[in-house]
Design goal:
CATH superfamily of the domain at 51-169: Glycosidases
Shape: globular
Number of strands: 9
Strand order of the largest sheet: 1-6-7
CATH topology of the domain at 51-169: TIM Barrel
Largest sheet: 3 strands, parallel
């Protein structure tokens, strides 16, 4: 029997704290400190968009535990708009994923972190666990459904679907 040990974790955001941070644990986002990182962009839900934080976390975890790593969730929740011709132009999601993949590549190529794999969250729109709403969408495939349960449930591939398909086919080499 071969035992293969590695660390897997989800990465979405970073938090800023100070010594006197008023920690408030709420939702699946976890921690609210009352502080925002003024050096990074924020999502519509106030989550920091911090791709360098992903590289930092990869290095920190590998330095500490000396085990291979795997990112099992990473993505951007956003309000996606369906155009009249049934398209979703989610360039913001592509930019988010591209910047995080670029930082993972640096962690591997420059820093020597053994990263086994990466999975974006999620392939298809679903009810957001952190907010319980459908309008916060993560997927590459749009689901015609609103917060009240109205819609046809039709699935529509977003621009990010075609972009990520190309990223997968190139093993991460083509991020254009």
């Amino acid at each position: 029997m071969v035992l293969f040990i590695f660390i897997s974790y989800s990465y979405y955001l970073t938090h800023v704290i100070v010594k006197e941070s008023p920690l408030e644990f709420s939702g699946l986002n976890g921690v609210k400190t009352g502080y925002k990182n003024q050096h990074v962009e924020q999502s519509e839900w106030g989550w920091s968009i911090d791709p360098k934080g992903l590289r930092y976390s990869l290095n920190y975890l590998y330095d500490r535990y000396q085990l291979p790593l795997m990112i099992v969730e990473n993505g951007l929740g956003a309000v996606d708009t369906l155009t009249p011709d049934k398209k979703v132009h989610d360039d913001y999601r592509i930019a988010y994923l591209r910047s995080h993949i670029e930082e993972m590549k640096k962690a591997v190529a420059i820093d020597g972190v053994p990263l086994l794999g990466y999975m974006a969250w999620g392939p298809i729109d679903l009810i957001a666990a952190s907010t319980g709403e459908m309008k916060k969408r993560y997927g590459f495939i749009y689901v015609d459904l609103d917060d009240e349960g109205n819609g046809t449930l039709e699935r529509i591939k977003k621009d990010s679907f075609y972009w990520y398909k190309k990223v997968i086919a190139s093993n991460g080499d083509d991020l254009t």
